[in-house]
Design a protein that fits this description.
The chain has 170 residues and is an all-beta fold. It contains no helices and eight strands. A hairpin with a 2-residue loop joins strand 2 and strand 3.
Length: 170
């Protein structure tokens, strides 16, 4: 199965948060660290799912996010992400998966950006599992482990990321 994905990220989320304590109390947090950007961004991507053997599936996906607008002197950097994964489909309701992903983020721009401390590349390995809970409900959990991280300047970089959720199929 092959498909495309497209959408918009709307300008939701706060983007004028201030430090609550410390030496910069009352100053605005860098725009690149805010929960929102205040900008509209386009999301474009494509994916392909297939089978290597009857019990070993795979998917490949490429996605990009491109800023269409700027707001109050800030335009987030565009990014592109490519992923490939293998999943073992022999077990009836549980599917282990191993994913490798690469992400390139370009620098933020505008007078209110912290351009020197934005953008970079990441390569992550993400083992995970999904489990069928019912005919319409699937639970999933993944841990994303960095294999390579190259960021510009000084940036916060997690040692690992944990994701869990539930998918409801209509």
């Amino acid at each position: 199965m092959t498909g495309i994905e497209a959408g918009l990220v709307l300008p939701t989320g706060l983007f004028r948060q201030k430090f609550n304590s410390g030496p910069e109390k009352g100053e605005e947090v860098d725009r690149g660290l805010q929960p929102g950007t205040g900008t509209v961004q386009a999301v474009l991507g494509a994916y392909h799912l297939g089978a290597v053997t009857p019990e070993l599936g795979y998917f490949i996906q490429a996605t990009s996010q491109l800023p269409l607008t700027s707001r109050d002197g800030f335009k987030p950097g565009a990014f592109v992400q490519a992923s490939a994964a293998l999943n073992y489909t022999h077990w009836r309701n549980v599917t282990p998966q191993l994913q490798l992903s690469f992400r390139k983020t370009w620098r933020d721009s505008g007078p209110d950006s912290d351009r020197p401390n934005s953008g970079g590349e990441q390569v992550n390995l993400a083992p995970g599992v999904s489990a069928k809970i019912s005919s319409k409900l699937v639970g999933f959990t993944f841990v994303e482990l960095p294999l390579y991280t190259g960021v510009n300047g000084f940036q916060l970089v997690p040692k690992a990321k944990f994701s869990a959720g539930v998918l409801y199929r209509l």
